[in-house]
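tool_log.txt
---
The assistant was asked to compare two proteins side by side. It first ran the structure predictor on the initial sequence, then on the second. Raw inputs and outputs are pasted verbatim so the downstream comparison step can read them without reformatting.
(1)
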Amino acid sequence: MDSTLISRPGYRSDIDGLRAIAVMAVVFFHAFPSSLRGGFIGVDVFFVISGFLISGIVLDGLERGTFTFSDFYQRRIKRIFPALFLILAACLALGWCLLMADEYKSLGKHIAGGSVFASNFILAKEANYFGAAADSKQLLHLWSLAVEEQFYIVWPLVLWLAFHRKWNFLLISLLAAMASFYLNIRQSGIDLTEDFYAPQTRFWELMFGSALCCAIRQIPAERKEGGNVIPGWASIVGVVLLACGFGLLDKEIGFPGKWALVPVLGAVLIICAGPNAWVNKVVLSNRVLVWIGLISFPLYLWHWPLLSFLSTFLGGTPTVQLRFAAVLLSVALAWFTYRFIEIPVRFGVFGKTRVALLAVLVGVTGILGLIVYYWNGFQSKGADEFISYYSEMNETIPGSAMRKAYRHECNFLDVDQEVAGVHYVARSEISSNCYTRDFAKSKSIFLWGDSHAQQLYFGLSRQLSDDWQILQVATSNCGVLANHLDGTRKSALCAKSNQMAKESIARAKPDVVLVSQVVPLSASEAAQVNKQVLELGAKHVIFVGPVTRWQTDLVKLVARKYMIHTPRYTFSGLNMAMYETNTELKKAYAEANINYVDVMSLMCNEDGCLTYLGDDVRKGLTARDYGHLLPMASDFVAKNLLVPQIYRIDS
């Protein structure tokens, strides 16, 4: 343990212990998400600690007359840039060795964003922190560092103004925290992704730490004797709050919103209980926890890129043993970074010239990231051309064949806005051809669901006889039971789509309603939908089970592992959990006497699941991503499974 660091005046070992709890929670959430569902709240604990410590540093300097902005930011550079440079440079090198061109291009953009602390803004337009796409973003975790650094740009200036104008520090902190918290609550009801990443909706967590710092400074010295500000049991309450957060909160609750109060208040109570509270003195000041706390920053920086690169390279979730090995390697790299990089830079003789050099190194790395991005990840031949071919098969591209194959005009989601980073915007209307009955056709089928219903259109349009009309109201990201209005754009979008679907079914009274969505309905949910649709006037309802699901994009799985010889069937990279879910659903639907189409039974056998159709793997892959059917596969499913089932049930 470094004596230089822990012997400095005002140092609190219990706060390093709290850092250890926070970083271990985040690491275990990323490595073993099912074992610690709420581990992501460790970042919120970091925010409180940062607000508390930084405010103390600034206020101490102001009161002593030694504070300067140049000194403050030099200290931040020496604290942050050494480890950050290592991570960015390592990712640049590893990406060159392990990633495909499009993946490397994306990494280049995130390296550039990370170098200027803008990762949160980039990610807000790209990925939900808890979404499947987030796993492939090696620098996803830099969003929190960006928020902290943005806070450090604004808050010291506010404190400096407050000091010189004789404003009350505590009042300013509380007012700012309340304003930010209000924005957080409001935004959580509109767009959770924006709420998660935006600095204005996250600053309140750091300001709670700042307010605590200001409150403690206003307490007379005689009341702070021994270091305790409030009774020691406060830290026990804080620990209970954190434990409840780690165990009970999960990614489905709509975080941050009001739920972020749980870790924030827990951290505040633990810190303000003081270093002599029993929990703080005995548990958090334990030498092991303090050591982990001291390496917490480089550990946070190292762990996620290693896990993400491992997952990307293997084409799916690594084994428990490999993930554990990645965590151990992260700890080793964190210790090395702390001991041989951080300590010499932070506490050695390090003049302004060398501080400037650190900034230049990070800046140059960011520029290299931009070069990678603008040069398309240095696209090469072979596997990258293969990926490029399939990347064009995406309905997010205006005018692409996939928009026609998925019948884009029947999707209420404004896909162009989605691509631009504005999520869940509803189009004012869809084409009347999607829901208006053409009685020149003697039969009609109605597709209802999300993009997993959209993918069935192409095959049905080719395989159903000419006397069948295909109606469709299927909106991306909207399951058929998503009808609850909670103020968010997504709920409004889905409610609008599903209301239109039900009204259209009632008017058209189709012969068959085909229901399909990414998250399969349970048998009881399906029974509810089945009853409702029949009451609306449809003659029959068919529920389509999940298609083959892969842990990563099938295109990249094949490009990375099977370009020379692609097996027609494989278990490699298969999402076995969905495979097992399908078996359970098939049995439950049969017991409930509900029509269920088992797509996996067609696409999978004892050798695994279909990777491609036809003779050319470069043109015949079954899916363009984790499980959206390409047109050839949609045609295959319709011809061999759906259409025979439709004809049978309607006969």
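(2)
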Amino acid sequence: MSTTVINTLVSESRSVPRIWLEGQHLAHAGVEIGVQYMLNVCEKLRRIELRPAPQGFSGKTVSVSKRTRNERVYPLIEVRDSIIAALFEVGTKLRVAIHNGRIVISMSHIAMRVQERVSRFLNKLKTGEPLSVLSLFHGGGVLDGAIHEGFQRAGLASYVKIAVEFEGDYIDSSLRNNPQLWRDDSIVINGDIRDVNILGNGIPQAEVCVAGVPC
């Protein structure tokens, strides 16, 4: 059988979180109307796996119902369970992978990255660790200097972790005149921003992005 991958969201009905799946693409991946699915939950991985329940299974199940549209009948699955609220917030982006009738529901890579960034940001606020700044179109550092000063007034430490600037003279000027922005682990990228590789391994993470107006 084939595989179907669905990008969806945790929705809400009558104040109860739910995951709603329907369409011919479910049948394409082996989901059959009338089949009872049992839920296998991994809270550590924040993942829900649905497998067809064996005959005589007495635990909690989710039934595949149907919907008729334009005289065509499609499978429909609505997962409404308290475990959804424990794993995901309403609006969380999900990745649903279906293969041979087996359904795996997990956070999308986008949602996981957002969660990681928020957790890292809040942890730094709690511990007082300096915020790392990604500075795009850095220029001579005027905007970064103003934001750095504003953070200081609010009791927040920060520094430029990565700066990208096309003009070498401008970045040199910032390095000379704005020592408060830089630390030993700051990375300076002198070149066209379109040539910057953001997909490589070991790229530092930042909590703040400052984007100046390019000339």
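---
observation on (2): Residues 72 and 155 are 62 Å apart (CA to CA). The chain has two domains: 3-110, 130-211.
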